[in-house]
Amino acid sequence: MKPNINLNHLLRSKKLYYGLAAVAIISVLPLFVRSEYVVGHVFTVMIIFAIYASSWNLLAYSGQGSLGHAAFLGIGGFASALLATRLGVPPIIGLFIGSLFSAGIGFLIGLACVRLKAWFLAMVTFGFSVIAVTIISQLDPYIGGMIGFPVPPIVPPTLLFYYATLAIAAVSIGAIYLVIRSKFGLAFKAIRENELEAKMIGINSAKYKLIAFVISTFFAGLAGGLYAQSQGFIQIRFFEPYYSFLPLIMSVIGGLSTIEGPLIGSVIIVFIDSYLPLADRLLQPLTPFFPGVSSIGSPLGRAGLGLFLIVVIIFLPKGLTSLFHKAYDYLEPHLSKAYDYFVKETPKAKTDGKT
Q: What is the dihedral of CA 267, 270, 275, 280, to 10 degrees?
């Protein structure tokens, strides 16, 4: 099966123009927000995690799951960082070599595991992330991953790195979108809906699940390299389970198996993670209820994240994307009437007035 994409249909796709509009809006954000912290550590991280969450979501789109995606985030981050710092490889080249290395490891894991059912595969990936942490810790005398080390960026921070990250993210998410809209995407969807029936109509499920797994791990590694560069530092915490659950949470909150879901989820989760811990001053009266905890902002951030996830799963099982779709369905007739009035009826009215 070849990745056949109908270019005319793609150019008529509303999501293409929504995506271009989103990129345009994100491009001008630094003109209105002059804080280097917000641009470099909030907006940039939102963009990076949009890539990361989209990579996990592609895996879910093919009916697979991963609870160890942090392994590929960390592998991509460490590989690109070590290439730049130890071998003198230009950071931009190291970034993509690190992504390919992550995809290569993903290929090897996928060969052994893609025949497993979704959550059995997820447990295998979680186990692999534990193994990866052990390997990095044992190689600490040579790598320095426990303490960490500085990572050079592809371009000088903050503003130039923001735009470079945005450009890479636009290409990456656009590539994932093209995969989903291609015949590969149709095969992924068929496998997700009913793998047995997909096999009966001639779809090699193991082959396409492996393709999805490799593509997913490539972009996870790319996100890892960018994240290390955005922080200017990398250490073993990149492999923590927290980073394995983040793309899952982002995709579920935004909307599973949609191209926009991970983007919405990454914006919301990074915002919560960045700003709830700053509420310490407002929460000082509550410190007696948290003995032994010097700062309750960080625990509150985790609690707020968990509470938000619970609310979305209960009341919006299809994610926040479903709200946007409902709002669009409600506004679309009104927008069409306005379009017909101003674009179609006005010239006619002017012509009638002249006669």
A: 150
Q: Is the pLDDT of residue 11 over 80?
A: no
* Spatial CB neighbours of 188, under 8 Å, sequence gap ≥ 6: 58, 61, 62, 63, 180, 208, 212
> Residues 59, 113: contact at Cβ < 8 Å?
no
Write the burial class of residue 40 (CB in 10 Å: 0-12 exposed, 13-18 middle, 19+ buried).
buried
Q: If pLDDT is split at 50, 70 and 90, which confidence band does 9 have? A: low
The torsion of the CA quartet 173, 98, 163, 266, rounded to 10 degrees, works out to: 50
Residue carrying the six token digits 């796709």: 13
The CATH architecture that domain 7-276+295-319 belongs to is Orthogonal Bundle (1.10)
Yes or no: say if 197 and 89 are a contact pair by the CB < 8 Å rule.
no
Determine the Cα–Cα distance for residues 73 and 239; give it in Å rounded to an integer: 7
Dig out the tokens for 24 from the structure: 């345009």
Encoding tokens for residue 262? 């991970």
Instruction: State how beta strands 149-150 and 233-234 pair.
Output: antiparallel
Q: What is the pLDDT of residues 179-206, one digit of tens each?
A: 998 999 999 999 999 999 999 999 999 9
Cα 342–chain centre separation: 39
User: In this structure, how many other beta carbons lie within 10 angstroms of the beta carbon of residue 26?
Assistant: 19
- CA 282 to mean position of chain CA atoms: 32
Domain residue ranges of the chain, discontinuous segments joined by +: 7-276+295-319, 322-355
DSSP string, 315-340: H-TT-THHHHHHHHHHHHHHHHHHHI
Distance CA(121)–CA(114), nearest Å, equals 7
- How far apart CA 27 and CA 162 sit, in angstroms, is 9
Alpha helices in 182-320 (DSSP H): 183-193, 195-200, 205-231, 241-254, 261-275, 297-315
Q: For 150, list phi and psi in degrees, rounded to 5.
A: -70, 150
Say if residue 269 is exposed, middle or buried (CB neighbours under 10 Å; 0-12, 13-18, 19+): buried
| CA terminus-to-terminus distance, the chain | 60
Q: Give me the pLDDT at residue 355, please.
A: 47
Give dist(CA 345, CA 341) in Å, integer. 5
